[in-house]
Amino acid sequence: MQTTKNKHWFQAARHAGDGLQYAVRHERNVRFDLVIGTLVVIASWWCHLTRWEWVVVLLLIGLVISAEIMNSALEAVIDLTTNQEYHPLAKAAKDMAAGMVWLLAIVAAISGLIIFIPHLVAKF
Ligand SMILES: Nc1ncnc2c1ncn2[C@@H]1O[C@H](COP(=O)(O)OP(=O)(O)OP(=O)(O)O)[C@@H](O)[C@H]1O
After folding, report:
1. Does the CA dihedral 44-109-100-90 come out positive or negative?
2. Closest residue to atom 6 of ligand 1, CA basis
3. Fold category of 29-119 in CATH
């Protein structure tokens, strides 16, 4: 059990991998985002997006999933420090982190509509 700084990049990468694995195993919202992200990638392939549309779509998927993982990390720290007892600052911190995820998800959804609607109209 290590509590000191990582000694080399391989150790750092292994711990980052542990973090991603923990997020997928324990966070339902992260799993949900991964499913939606996979469906969006399939839809992008089906719609033959342009190179720059692919870049935007992949960036947005990465941003939403990263924000979800950051939200979960903040929740873990808050639960650790409050021992799950009520505190108005804990509420503010958790609500703001959740707000960040929602804001990004809404922006991603609107951007997705702007990208996909012309392709869908052309197809049908
Ligand atoms: N220690 C606390 N003190 C005050 N309010 C809290 C505390 N823990 C949780 N809450 C409130 O409960 C809400 C939900 O808690 P929490 O974020 O832990 O659950 P969650 O279901 O994992 O949320 P999310 O869907 O955002 O991942 C928070 O947004 C906050 O308003």
Report:
1. negative
2. 91
3. Helix Hairpins (1.10.287)
